[in-house]
């Protein structure tokens, strides 16, 4: 089993930026496609972005494309989400998870605690 820990979320003004991190332990992620997901207040969890095991072919949900960048550092067993031009609609708890069906479906076995991002207008 893999343990996932997300961190870096905080309150930020609209138009601002921040970088989220997801670190894993218990299993290497070097051969695993990974994704970011988020849960907005009162809503179901939704797909945000994903990246294949070697770091190529990033993929994004339409509303974040051009604003967010997903990346990974396999030696550190960590994935990142750089978030620019943040909007109030980005307010959510953000999670990482392995991708089960490329590019949008999480494996859904092990979820971390998530990290809260709050964007104020």
In one word, what is the shape?
A: globular
Proportion of residues in helical segments? under 10%
Largest sheet geometry: 7 strands, mixed
Poorly predicted segments:
none
State Rg: 13 Å
Structural class: mainly beta
Work out the strand percent. Answer: over 45%
What is the ordering of alpha helices and beta strands?
Answer: EEEEEEEEEEE
Account of the protein in words:
- Helix content is 0%, strand content 50%.
- It is built from no helices and 11 strands.
- The protein has strands at 3-7, 11-13, 18-25, 34-39, 45-51, 59-60, 68-73, 78-83, 92-101, 105-106, 115-120.
- The strands form 2 sheets. Strands 2, 4, 5, 6, 9, 10 and 11 form a 7-stranded mixed beta sheet that branches. It has a 4-stranded antiparallel beta sheet with strand order 1-3-8-7, with no helix packed on it.
- Strand 4 and strand 5 form a beta hairpin.
- It is globular.
- The protein starts with a strand and ends with a strand.
């Amino acid at each position: 089993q893999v343990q996932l820990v997300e961190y870096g979320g905080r309150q930020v003004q609209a138009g601002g930026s921040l970088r989220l991190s997801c670190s894993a332990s218990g299993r290497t992620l070097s051969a695993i496609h990974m994704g970011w997901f988020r849960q907005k207040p009162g809503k179901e969890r939704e797909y945000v972005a994903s990246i294949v095991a070697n770091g190529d072919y990033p993929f994004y949900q339409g509303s974040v494309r051009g604003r967010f960048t997903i990346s990974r550092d396999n030696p550190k067993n960590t994935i990142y989400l750089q978030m620019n031009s943040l909007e109030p609609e980005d307010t959510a708890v953000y999670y990482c998870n392995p991708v089960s069906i490329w590019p949008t479906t999480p494996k859904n076995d092990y979820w971390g605690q998530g990290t809260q991002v709050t964007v104020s207008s």
